[in-house]
Structure formats: structure tokens, C-alpha cells
Design brief:
By secondary structure, this protein is α+β, with helices and mostly antiparallel strands. It has three domains: 245 residues, Alpha-Beta Complex (3-hydroxy-3-methylglutaryl-coenzyme A Reductase, Chain A, domain 2); 104 residues, 2-Layer Sandwich (Alpha-Beta Plaits); 48 residues, Helicase, Ruva Protein, domain 3. Helix content is 51%, strand content 19%. The chain contains 18 helices and ten strands. The strands form three sheets. It has a four-stranded antiparallel beta sheet with strand order 3-8-10-9. Strands 5-6-4-7 form a four-stranded antiparallel beta sheet. α6 runs antiparallel to α8 and α10 packs across α15. The protein is globular. Bound molecules: (R)-mevalonate. (R)-mevalonate binds next to α11 and α15.
Length: 423
């Protein structure tokens, strides 16, 4: 069933009502989404199999971003984050791109890199060539390690070898390029790297040391572009100022770090919700932002010929649908089902689109009104809830503490008490 991600009434109900609405919209039975309720989520015994010395689980809110269209298809996107504004901002930015065709993605394919470090090679230049001469043998040996991956059309594709001058002498570094298909790929490439290491060390004439994937996954890039409606953004001046804000981030690493953090607010929330490795994606993103030797923005903003804002983003996205927590965590499984993605590349496209939407939303807020207004309104709702306000009381308490510009816990408590006394 084709999903329609326009769900304007979603915020007007409670979490159980939202799950029902979303299940209907996504063509899922209500049971699939029940695991999002903490009382049906990750059980302690399941957690105990995921990591060591387990003592419990941590609840992180999961919200659903609406309005997203990627490559002509609508998605309802589960986002796991503790930060207020993030889900609302992504949904809002996606709405501004929706009428102009939404988000369009492309990728380089799912090629991960394993690194093999060979040290103490007396003749590293010749050692490098000896390894390269054995290319076919090494690729075959790598592919023997994972017949399942080869059967799925993936596997080791290419290798490269270089000599690396270090302060501890020259080393020989081999990269093995592996098409990991729908996996994140760490297990597949690490197994191959370990299997190859003794032979590579023998060929190079040195000692094998590290053999591990690189999180600088620059052969697994996802790109996304979208046009954001100038009128919905607030007019030509807002478009101009967002372009200027983007240029600031391109030119200045202090701003770029914050700008990219805004992108990762969206990216990491979907990566986490789908049980993928947030640290792998984050280190890859920041390595990519520094690929030319200086740290810069991952996204670009331009004014299109029709006056609309054009946003583009490119980043490595090592995410998978098979293996790891994506398979072992019931909530992550439900998140993947809700998304309805069928391949890791499709998931990466949605994640990149959310990253760009999140980035645009932050820039618009900063350029047009300053971030604190929207942020503080949501913060006020959190304070009202913490003060004990019920669903009906949160709105009035939050509105009052915002209007009085006293967005603090004790004032939320006072306003709540006054509200109840006035009844
Ligand atoms: C806050 O989590 C993210 C922002 O700082 C991003 C940005 O400044 O672009 C608002």
C-alpha cells in the first residue's frame, strides 16, 4: 500500500492514538507498532543478549516525522531522540519541499573498506607491488569467507595498496573494497581482513598488525537534493539569508561543526531508531566533512533559478537492514517495518533526506527568527509535563510560562497549581 506521509492531525492525539493513525496510514496492523510502547518494548532478557553486564534499558522517545517524500515515495519516519523540536522541525522542512517534488537521492553503492596494516617491511615499495601482483588470489580468498554475500551479488571487489610514511617508519597499507549489499558490513569486511592478513604480510614481507574496517566510508556515499518553497520559507529574504548562513558554515569550521550537528540531529535519530550504529555514521560524516584537509559543512544551499532554495547534502551512510541490533531489537524491527524500506540504500536515502530537512529547518529558524523561540516553546511543554501537568494541562501551562517569559521548572509548578486552584 502506498503511504501518504501527510498526517496533519498527528499531534492532536496521544501516543496510542498516534500509533493507531500511523498503522492505518502505513497499512500495518496495530500490533506491529505496539513494541513502541515501553511496556512492550525491549525486554531485559533481550537486552542481556545485546551487550554485557546488563542492568536495564534506557527509554528514548521515538517520534514520527511526517511529510517526507523521497524519490517520489512517501515515508513516515521513526526518529529516536531526546531533543525537543527535532521531529517537528524535520516534518516542517519536509513539508516545504513536498510541493516541489520532495527529496531526490543517489548513491555510490554499498562498498565498505577494510584496512590491513603491515609493518616492519624492509622494502615497502616492492612489498606494495608484491601484494598488488596477488590481487586475484587475495580477492578470491576474501570471497571464500562469505559465500552468502557473494550469493547475494556482493563481495570483495577491488584492493589498493600504498606505502604510508609515519613517524614510526614506512608502513604498507592495503584497502580491501567490499560490496556489502544490505548489511552495515562491519562483520563481513572484518572477517575478510582477518583471513587475508597472514597472506598479505607474507607477500609484503612484514608483520600484519591492525585489520579492521574504516569508518571513513567514502565508497558508500549517499547524496540528496531538494528544493524548498521560498514562500513557505518566508520569502526571498529568508532564502537569501539561509544561503548566507550556509556559506558561513562552508567557510568556518566553528560554524560547520554546529551546522553539521544540526544535520546529525536528523541522521542519528533515524540511525538509532532503526538499530544502526550511530557512532559509525557520525565518525564517517565528520571524516567526510574534513575530506579536503579542512573541516567544512556537509551540505550546500543555493538559490534556484525560480527563487526557491536548493539544498544538497552528501555523506557516507554505513547502515544496514540485516544483522546487528536492526535484527535483534524488536523496536528497531518495527521502525524498519514502519519505514517500509526494502534495501539499505533506500534506508540511507531516507536518512540523508531527514538530515537535509533537519539542517534546513535549523538554518531557517536561525536566519529568520533565532532558534530559541520554537525551542523554548517545546521546552516549556517539557517543563509543564515534568511539573505533573496532564495532557489537557500541558498546553495552557506552557503557553503561560512562555508568555510570561519565565520558562523555568518552579514557575511551571506554580502556574499548574494556580490553574488547578482556579477550577
Ligand atoms: C541544535 O541541536 C542544532 C543547531 O544548533 C543546528 C544549527 O545551528 O544549525 C540549531
Amino acid at each position: 500500500m502506498a503511504v501518504n506521509s501527510r498526517l496533519p492531525r498527528l499531534r492532536d492525539t496521544d501516543p496510542a492514538g498516534r500509533r493507531r493513525l500511523i498503522a492505518e496510514h502505513a497499512g500495518l496492523d496495530a500490533e506491529t507498532l505496539q513494541v513502541f510502547d515501553p511496556s512492550h518494548g525491549l525486554e531485559l532478557k533481550q537486552a542481556d543478549h545485546l551487550i554485557e553486564n546488563v542492568i536495564g534499558v534506557l527509554g528514548v522517545p521515538v517520534g514520527v516525522a511526517t511529510n517526507l517524500t523521497v524519490n517520489g515515495r512517501d515515508y513516515l519516519v521513526p526518529m529516536a531522540t531526546e531533543e525537543p523540536s527535532v521531529v517537528a522541525a524535520a516534518s516542517n522542512a519536509a513539508r516545504m519541499a513536498r510541493g516541489l517534488g520532495g527529496f531526490h537521492t543517489s548513491d555510490t553503492g554499498a562498498v565498505m573498506i577494510a584496512q590491513l596494516q603491515i609493518v616492519e617491511v624492509p622494502d615497502p615499495e616492492a612489498g606494495r607491488l608484491r601484494v598488488l601482483e596477488a590481487r586475484d588470489e587475495l580477492l578470491a580468498l576474501a570471497n571464500e569467507q562469505d559465500p552468502v554475500l557473494a550469493g547475494l551479488g556482493g563481495g570483495a571487489r577491488e584492493l589498493s595498496v600504498r606505502t604510508l610514511p609515519t613517524r614510526a617508519g614506512d608502513q604498507v597499507i592495503m584497502h580491501l573494497h567490499v560490496d556489502v549489499r544490505d548489511a552495515m558490513g562491519a562483520n563481513a569486511v572484518n572477517t575478510m581482513a582477518e583471513a587475508l592478513a597472514p597472506r598479505v604480510a607474507e607477500l609484503a614481507g612484514g608483520r600484519s598488525l591492525l585489520r579492521i574496517l574504516s569508518n571513513k566510508a567514502d565508497r558508500r556515499l549517499t547524496r540528496v537534493r531538494a528544493r524548498f518553497d521560498a514562500d513557505l520559507l518566508g520569502g526571498a529574504e529568508v532564502v537569501r539569508d539561509i544561503v548566507l548562513a550556509g556559506a558561513f558554515a562552508e567557510a568556518d569550521p566553528y560554524r560547520a561543526a554546529t551546522h553539521n550537528k544540526g544535520i546529525m540531529n536528523g541522521v542519528s535519530a533515524v540511525v538509532l531508531a532503526t538499530g544502526n550504529d550511530t557512532r559509525a555514521v557520525e565518525s564517517g560524516a565528520h571524516a567526510h566533512a574534513a575530506r579536503d584537509g579542512h573541516y567544512t559543512a556537509l551540505s550546500r544551499f543555493e538559490t534556484g533559478p525560480d527563487g526557491h532554495l536548493v539544498g544538497t547534502l552528501e555523506l557516507p551512510l554505513a547502515v544496514g537492514l540485516v544483522g546487528g541490533a536492526t535484527r535483534a531489537h524488536p523496536v528497531a524491527q518495527a521502525a524498519v517495518r514502519l519505514l517500509g524500506v526494502e534495501s539499505a540504500a533506500e534506508l540511507a536515502g531516507v536518512i540523508a533526506a531527514v538530515g537535509l530537512a533537519q539542517n534546513l529547518a535549523a538554518l531557517r529558524a536561525l536566519a529568520a527568527e533565532g532558534i530559541q523561540r520554537g525551542h523554548m516553546t517545546l521546552h516549556a511543554r517539557t517543563l509543564a509535563a515534568s511539573a505533573g501537568a496532564t495532557a489537557d494541562e500541558i498546553g495552557p501551562v506552557a503557553a503561560r510560562i512562555v508568555a510570561d517569559r519565565r520558562i523555568r521548572a518552579e514557575y511551571a509548578e506554580q502556574v499548574l497549581a494556580e490553574l488547578r486552584a482556579a477550577r
